[in-house]
Amino acid sequence: MKGLKGKNVLVTGASSGIGQAIAIRFAQEGANVAINYRSSPAEAEETEELAIKEACGNIENCGVKSLLVQADVSQEADVVRMVSEVIDQFGSLDILINNAGIQIAGAAHEIKIEDFDRVLAVNLRGAYICAREAIKSFISQGSGGIIINISSVHEIIPKPDYVGYSVSKGGMENLTRSLALEYARENIRVNAIGPGATITPINQTWIDEPEKKAQVESKIPLGRAGTSEEMAAAVAFLASDEAAYITGQTLFVDGGLTLYPAFRENWSS
Ligand code: NAD
C-alpha cells in the first residue's frame, strides 16, 4: 500500500491477536515495526519472527527492522520510555497503532471499581498517553504523523456486562475526533477502526466452542466472525497515503454488525 515502506511504526499490545496481525502486515508493507508487549517477551518474539519471515522470506537483512519494547501502556513512565526507545533505535516515529486493550466482565451494579478503573486505564487513558508521546515526537520531527486507534463496534453498540469496556471505546471515538481536529494543522491524521467479533484470544470464551461461536455468528449479517488479518488490512489502508484525506473517522470492520441486524426483518409496518 502506498506510503508505508520504510515508515517507523509502533504497535501496542502486539504480542497476540489483532496487534500481532497489524505488526506482521506493516512488516509485509516494508515498514519497520516496534512490537510493544506488557509481560511476555516470548509471545512478542513470536510476532517478531513472523513479521520478519513475512517481510523477508529467506533474504537476510532485507531492510525491515524490528524492535521489542516492553511497556504497560497504563503507566505514563513506561510509555515515555517506550516511545523514546523506539526513536533511539529507529531514528523517528511515523505511525502509532493504539491496539492494547482488555475487558473485564461483570454486572454494572456489581463490578469492582478497581476493575472499572483498570479497563479505562489501559484502553482509554493508555491510548491517550501513547498518543500524547507520539504527537510530541511528530511535532518535533516536523513531518506529520499518523495514529490509528483500535476501537470496537462497542464504540456505538452498548455492551451489557462490560460497562468499562463500552465506556472506554465510546471515549476512544471522542479521543480520535478531538486529536484529529487539534492536530490536523500539524499534518497529523488520527483515525480508528471498529472491529466486530474477531477470532483472537480476547474471545477465548466462544471461539473454541462451536455452539457459542454459531450463536455469535448468527448475529453478524455476513454470517461469520472476522479475522485479525482483515482488521490489519483496514489499519494498513488508513495509515497509507491512500487515506491521506481521511481523519477523525472510525471505520467499522464488522461484517455488518453495526447495521442493526435485528431490523433485517420487516418489524413495524
Ligand atoms: P488480545 O487479548 O489478543 O490482545 C490484546 C493485547 O493487549 C494483548 O497482547 C495484551 O498483552 C495487550 N495488553 C493488555 N494490557 C496491556 C497493557 N497494560 N500494556 C500493553 N499491552 C497490553 O485481543 P485482541 O482481540 O487482539 O484485542 C486487540 C484490540 O482489539 C483491543 O483493543 C480490543 O478491545 C480490540 N477489539 C477486539 C475485538 C475482538 O473481537 N477480538 C473486537 C473489537 C475490538
UniProtKB/TrEMBL annotation:
Extent of the signal sequence: none
Q: Which InterPro entries match?
A: NAD(P)-bd_dom_sf (IPR036291), Sc_DH/Rdtase_CS (IPR020904), SDR_fam (IPR002347)
- Give its E.C. classification number: 1.1.1.47
Concerning SUPFAM superfamilies, the annotation shows: NAD(P)-binding Rossmann-fold domains
| Entry keyword set | Oxidoreductase
State the similarity comment. Belongs to the short-chain dehydrogenases/reductases (SDR) family.
Q: What is this protein called?
A: Glucose 1-dehydrogenase
Q: What species is given as this protein's source?
A: Crinalium epipsammum PCC 9333
